[in-house]
Amino acid sequence: MDLKSGYPFWTVKNGLLTAFPQLTHDHQTETVIIGGGITGALIADELSRHGHQVVVLERRDVGWGSSAASTALLQYEIDTHMVHLAEQYGEANAVMAYRSCAEAIHSLERLAAELGNVAFSRQESLYFASHDGDVAALKAELAMRKRFGFDVVWLDQRALESGYGFSAPGAILSSLAASIDPYRMAYHLLENVVRRGGGVFDRTQVERLEPNAEGVEVILRNGATLRCQQVIIAAGYESQSWLPEQVAENRSSYAFVTDPLPLDVLGKLSHTLVWESARPYLYLRSTQDGRLLIGGEDDEEDIPERRDARVMEKAQTLAAKVETLWPGLKINPTFCWGGTFAETDDGLPYFGPHEALGPRVHFAMAYGGNGITYSMIGAQLLRALIEGRQHPLSALFSFQR
Fold this sequence. Notes:
One of its GO terms (molecular function) is oxidoreductase activity. It comes from Vreelandella lionensis. The chain has about 400 residues and is an alpha/beta fold. The protein has twelve helices and 20 strands. Helix 2 runs parallel beside helix 8. The strands form three sheets. Strands 1, 5, 6, 7, 8, 14, 15, 16, 17 and 18 form a ten-stranded mixed sheet that branches.
């Protein structure tokens, strides 16, 4: 699957950070992780730092799939409102999902501090009402979050105009959010896995899996075989090809970064993630070198050639939307790209085994706008499953929910 097009900022900025070898011989390990993006890297790090032997397989270069195209907004705010999750799964589950995403941001912050040089930055999150008709739903969401201790406040139109320089009917301001360079973080995590004695192999494609009573045989396209106890499929949006039915809908999203802008021009945008209530939604964040990273204009296109042809048109549309909100900003799309993403019906991820492949093959499907925070949760959840322990989110994030 062609997961991205154009010039994703992280690959342009970082280049190819480390050359990992290709696996061409038979091998044996405890756990094989299929996928060398940020999700697979977080899982491999969690397992290896707790004494598990892991091998990571990536069919491209590491981080060269969806991680390279991620805009890396780290939010506890799930695309589905807490109010709506409560209606679907009960209040306790909804609150647990949101709190776990909040805890994941703190976990990522600690991990980033340990790794260093991954452009982690604490932010605030501004979720604004796109239309007057959205205000009531946002205020209901605000009330529920406040009731359960989340640090949120309501900003009215005047406060938005004076504080953030644009006009909207109102917004939820959350104190907890962050941003990161997911591509660089994936490399640093996998380098640590190798230092702990694990294996990381790119340009290595899995042909098929053969689960049995003793474990799983992973057959590579080049004919080599890996024998292991557990497999984790963390292949991003390609993971669905291992399932008998689709559990999420593939979409295309578009993004670009601007030229660097002076801090006095960015104002509070230099430390605030901004997104809106409309679906699909416009979102933006700053980078450490003072650029704006702007994304949105999602559509249902699932054919890479058609997605690729729309990149520049979508970038111009996004730029016009931002200039409408902030007439003082002159937006120049410098590096533009499009990428595949997937959405589940309820906005929640899937972690754990599926009956199609049995109990030794686990999926890590961190789908939706919370991909990296979900992946942090999933790393801990999957380690618990592998170690035979219960995790509070194992049922809610399972295929049986």
